[in-house]
Amino acid sequence: MLNTPMSSKQQSFFEGNSLKELVRQVQEVYLADSRPWVVGYSGGKDSTAVVQLVFVALEKLDEKQRSKPVFVISSDTLVETPVIVDHIFSSSKQIGEAAKRLRLPIETHIVKPADHETFWVNLIGKGYPAPTKQFRWCTDRMKIKPANRFILDRVAEHGEVVVVLGVRSSESATRQQAINLHKIPGQLLSRHSTLPNAFVYSPIVEFSTDDVWTFLLQTKNPWGGDNNKLLSLYKNAQQGECPLVIDTTTPSCGNSRFGCWTCTVVTSDKSMSAMIDNGEEWMEPLLEFRNMLAETQDPAVKDKFREYKRRDGKVMMKNRDAEGIVYGPYKFEVRKEFLRRLLSIQKQLQEEEKGLELISRSELKEIRRLWQTELQDWGDSVSEIFHDVFGFAFDCKSEDAISFDREDLELLKSVCTRLDVSWQMVAKLLDTERAHDSMSRRSKIFGELKAVLAESWGTQDEEVQRLKDREQLRLEITKKNANDKAATI
Fold this sequence. Notes:
Elements: H1 19-31, E1 37-40, H2 45-59, E2 70-75, H3 82-101, E3 106-111, H4 119-125, H5 137-158, E4 161-164, H6 173-182, E5 189-191, E6 198-201, H7 209-218, H8 227-237, H9 270-277, H10 284-295, H11 302-305, H12 332-351, H13 361-374, H14 381-390, H15 406-419, H16 423-435, H17 445-453, H18 460-488
Helix pairs in contact: 1-2, 2-7, 4-13, 12-14, 16-17
């Protein structure tokens, strides 16, 4: 038993129930209908307990009763803490191999975000600021959507599915409320909060933390895993797990370390520091990079790292009094520095034979496309930075090459400076024209050109003053209309 005493409100599940009764319940829910199961597995203690329960329950059934598939899915955000992702991948492989050997209808799958929704494409490509509690854009794109895509695919195949999760009511009062809100009276299933034709089964919902560890440490792992190593992993990380997130009611990772090494939602990453202190010194560059991202969240230095206009090209004020602006994406030079540092760390770790790919080629190609189409990066900065770091060319397809090059950009800047015109605006107009050049119908080009011209192309001071003048004019018109109305009464 772990030395983690339960609170007075946290009664042990096993004080009134036996493990045999719980296994029997899992079997009954499995046999109740033909709906396939999708079991969430994050590699942490709760999800491991659930997969073990399902594994044991199916193993004890007659082979003819194992009539419907069970899909064990894990989420790889592509920025998982390396130590943890190794554990998830190896244990998922063990689960699949053991299921095949024991003739259990269990398949393991790793779900990942689409190329255009990965952490690096959003942060470096689009310039999204490092996630915060107020703007946690990562969870939906990198965890919820990939898992939900898999679930919806199974719904399309089978009509309905049951999602089996390791959620526990003792996790928080908020989680308890969410569980109660969607529960179907008189049944062990709950309705999924957002997905139609998906139901949720939570077999360890009444477990305390001690119950989970009691079960894991006193029950043999059925696929050959070592739960004592899992306990050691928790001790080294000094934190909890990041669950498979399928909706916004599921607790996000925040304070856990079964999550992303890039997480800036917490003030400091004590878990990665603990791993480093416990022998994973090679992770120090990752922690330094993560801390660098966190530093950009300081309101006092936003103007240093962030654009004064939003991704739509417009300046937004914080309020109608035109006091302060809402800063937009990271500046282009900042994004380039992020990419250079990230690739340098990747090269260092690969030279140390860690075998890590921090950012994939497909992500680099998507970032390259975004920079070219949104930032008019005619100098092809991705290829340049890649070559500077690795010493060889980035393998981008010739048909992806941009029409304009660095010499064209320098010429354009020279001409625009002489004419006192924004070179970025002219470059974007040229790119818009080029994008429609080969189209048989060009009806949309005028709207797109108009949108480019409508963006804020002045300096920050000029655009802020323009918004202040516009607000002042609005107030004067409102006042005049009110006076005119009063005069007619």
